[in-house]
Every structure is written in C-alpha cells, then in structure tokens.
Amino acid sequence: MLFDQRTRTALREAGLSAEELRDVEREVTREARATADEVSAFFDEHETLYSDMEQTHSNAAFPEHAVDYCDLFTHSQDVRGFLRFDSWGVYVEGARVLAEEVVELELGQPVHDRVRFATTRDALE
Question: Is pLDDT of 84 > 90?
C-alpha cells in the first residue's frame, strides 16, 4: 500500500475512488520497477564508471569505479538493493535515471549520500 491510512482518507474525501487509488498505486509501482530495471541495466552494461562520490582515499574529482554488480528490487515506490564494487559494497536506498549516461543513487552505509554515476567523467561536470 503506497498511501498511509490518513492520506488514503484525505484522497477519498477529495473525490478519488478506491479504484482510482489502486490505479495510482499500481502505476507508481510499475514506474519504480522500470527505474530499477533501467538502473540495473546501466550498471550491467558498464564495467567501469565514474562518480561524484567523495572518498577519503582518493583526491580525484570524479573517481573511477570497477563495478562487480548492482542488485536492485522494489517495494511499492521504493527502489532498494546493493551495489558491489571490486573491493567493497554499499546499500542502495533510492535510484533514479538522470540521463542516458548518468544515474543517481541514494547510498546507505558507509556513504550516506546521493551519488551520481556516469559513463564518462565529462558527463559529471
């Protein structure tokens, strides 16, 4: 269920039917799945990517990453999962496609930040 009970009640009072609410929830769920699929494909298609992630062990403005895999799933409107690099990994707590060559992930521990990943460093400038 996408909307909590208070929101559902307010939307029903505003004139949306139960069926319309279900339609909205289904569409949002479909869009989240499409985003997860598109972001997963982005990582599958590129072995090396660049990011705007701040790293304590790198002074590069846009560090290079060797990506092992990106495993995403959806729960209602949320896109979550795990991103594995060559020597470490991080939880994904959100994702969106910004352009054909750039995606943005909301990363969990230890990063706790929104990070853009791109096919080239120029795409991040």
Answer: yes
Per the CB < 8 A criterion, the answer to whether 118 and 49 are in contact is yes
3-state secondary structure of 80: strand
The residues facing 11 across adjacent strands are none
Instruction: Indicate if the pLDDT at residue 57 is higher than 70.
Output: no
CA 33 to CA 78: how far, in whole Å?
A: 9
75 contacts: CB under 8 Å, gap ≥ 6: none
pTM for the model stands at 0.87
SS3 (DSSP) at 112: coil
By the 8 A CB rule, do 83 and 95 touch? no
Domains of the chain: 35-124 (2.70.180)
